[in-house]
Amino acid sequence: MRTRLAPAALALTLVLNPTAHASGMSFSASVDHDKLRLTCSDIEMRFSKDVRHSGDFMTVRRDRTIALPSTGSTPMRVRAPGRGGVRVQPSADGSASALVCMVAGANSQAAANAILDRVRVVNENGELTVAGPDDEDWAAYVVLSVPHDALLDLSAENGELALRGVSGHFSLRTTNGPIAVLDVAGEVVGEAVNGPISFRGHAGDIRLTAENGPVDVKLDAATWTGKGLDARTTNGPVQLSTPENLRAGVLVEGSANSLFSWKNISRSHSQGWTRDHAIRLGEGPVLVRLSTVNGPVQIKGGKGSSSSEGI
Q1: 258 in helix, strand or coil?
Q2: pTM of whole model > 0.70?
Q3: Could you give the 3-state DSSP secondary structure of residue 111?
């Protein structure tokens, strides 16, 4: 029996799960990726105390802006700090810059400022990093504003990596953080080990791979421009949302371990699930491929599509 999956829309406001620290403070961040250009005031970063710890607590923020060199033939490398993340957005004037949004938590304002005094933003040899004291509560979120045709190599251990409204060539790798690719043109290679991956758009040469996390894809146009999209996960669920009158060729594949559910797609499409655990949508050659090995699959077609519903 096929089991309906609870719907889950592409989250444009991404909340990073709280991470604990030896001091007993936990950290979380909330970023509204629906905004084309962010400032530090658009990024909520907060420390909170474990209920077992008493006493005063103060959070202090600090910002720093760094001019970056024009993109050359070698990608600029950006490493996210252990707490925080990296967001890439279009530049308003064609220049390249990094806005570093920093926050520290301590039992007094003076102590929090002392922590931020020890946080270093290093930009040398084609690499931008943010480093600070390992035994203190601090975090940093890097907002990169870049021109067209940017070349970037982004990596994170626990932080988020996000692209919004940019074009160029991008490599993204994270171990435990999420990846968000929204309205991007060009080439993107994204890899997450334990984090979720979300995509919204209709263009580019996009390859996204999750090992243990979910993949959420929202196609926002009837056709695809560019080489295509290949999004896959091994142990996570796959979600796909399509517009009305989809024409781009789409193939969604599962396995014998995958439960499929769908809404607003034709019965002829849904019959593919019973044959080979795959559903073919749209017309022409397949430009969009989604797959999972051990996870469930949920597909939601546009309201104007021929309706059939898997249960």
Answers
A1: coil
A2: yes
A3: helix
| CA-based torsion, 197, 191, 43, 84: positive or negative | positive
Residue type at 12 in one-letter notation = L
Q: Which residues contact 41 (CB under 8 A, 6 or more apart)?
A: none
> What's the token pair of residue 114?
């002392």
Interatomic CA distance for residues 85 and 172, integer angstroms: 12
User: Contact, 153 vs 77, CB < 8 A?
Assistant: yes
CB contact at 8 A, 138 and 132 = yes
Residue 8 vs residues 67, 145, 220: alpha-carbon distances, Å: 39, 30, 16
**Site of tokens 């045709």:** 149
Two structure tokens written together for 171? 């490599």
Taking only Cα atoms into account, the Rg of the chain, rounded to an integer number of angstroms, comes to 21
Look up residue 235 and give its two tokens: 């142990």
Question: How do strand 127-131 and strand 76-79 relate by DSSP bridges?
Answer: parallel
Strands 76-79 and 150-156: parallel
How many angstroms separate the CA atoms of 144 and 100, rounded? 9
| Digitized pLDDT (tens) for each residue of the chain, 311 residues in all | 233 333 333 334 444 444 545 456 788 888 988 899 999 999 999 888 765 555 678 889 999 999 998 766 889 999 999 899 999 999 999 999 999 999 999 989 999 999 999 999 999 999 999 999 999 999 999 999 999 999 999 999 988 999 999 999 999 999 999 999 999 999 999 999 998 999 999 999 999 999 999 999 999 999 999 999 999 999 999 999 999 889 999 999 998 888 888 888 765 555 556 567 889 999 889 999 999 999 999 999 887 554 444 43
What is the Cα 128 distance to its own chain's centre? 20
Confirm if 63 and 101 have CB atoms less than 8 A apart: yes
**How far is C-alpha 96 from the chain's CA centre?**
21
